[in-house]
Structure formats: structure tokens, C-alpha cells
Amino acid sequence: MTIDEAQKLVDEWITTYGVRYFSPLTNMACLTEEVGELARVMARKYGDQSFKEGEKENLSEEMADVFWVLLCIANQTGVNLTEALQQSIEKKTKRDAERHHNNEKLK
């Protein structure tokens, strides 16, 4: 599935099952909540915390939830994430072409 296809699929789901998009501000709050849930799993799996009894190691589910809400925000604000990502990669390539190779901290 491409990013464009994912944006369309989310839009179809929202208009079919979700009635309508939440407001952009509500979706921003939802994105923050989902990122927090992802952070919790990361801290338990890769950090110093341990899972509580009954907690699942659902890293992929939490990542998908973050992506879902980001797709919603992109759809409702008219952002084409494929184009935006391509532009971001070009910007970072131009800006950081040698920077990381010359970073002693990364060697």
C-alpha cells in the first residue's frame, strides 16, 4: 500500500464508519495521546521500565495508531503526505549530505 492509498483508505473509512473527521485540534490531541502510548511501549521494551501485569508488547499496533491519526490530520488539512515526505527527504539530503558522516558521535 502506498501512502496515497493509505490516505484514501482512511478517508473512505472515516466517511463510511466514522461519520466525519474529528476537528483538527481534537485529532492533534489524539495524535499526542497515541504518541504517548507508543512511548510507553518503547520505554518498557527498549528502556529501563518493565511491562505491568497484563500489558501487551503491541509496538506495531501503537505505530499504526500514530500513523492513522497522522493520515486523518493530513486528509483534513489537504496535505499530500507522499509529496511532503519526498520534499522532506530532499531537504534533509541537501542539508545533511555530509553532516552525519562527519559527526564523531556517530562513529
Strand % is: under 5%
CATH superfamily grouping: MazG-like
Assign the CATH architecture.
Orthogonal Bundle
CATH topology: Helix Hairpins
The ordered string of helix (H) and strand (E) elements is HHHH
Mean pLDDT over all positions:
96
Give the total of domains.
Answer: 1
**Globular, elongated, flat, extended or rod-shaped: what is the shape?**
flat
Give a quick account of the main beta sheet: strands, pairing sense, barrel closure: none
Helix fraction bin? 55-70%
Reading off the top of the CATH hierarchy, the class is best stated as: Mainly Alpha
Q: Can you tell me the residue ranges where pLDDT is under 50 for at least 5 consecutive residues?
A: none
Description:
- With about 110 residues, this protein is mainly α.
- The chain has a single domain (about 5-80), classed as Helix Hairpins (Orthogonal Bundle).
- Helix content is about 65%, strand content about 0%.
- It has four helices and no strands.
- It has helices at about 5-15, 25-45, 60-75, 80-95.
- The mean pLDDT is about 95.
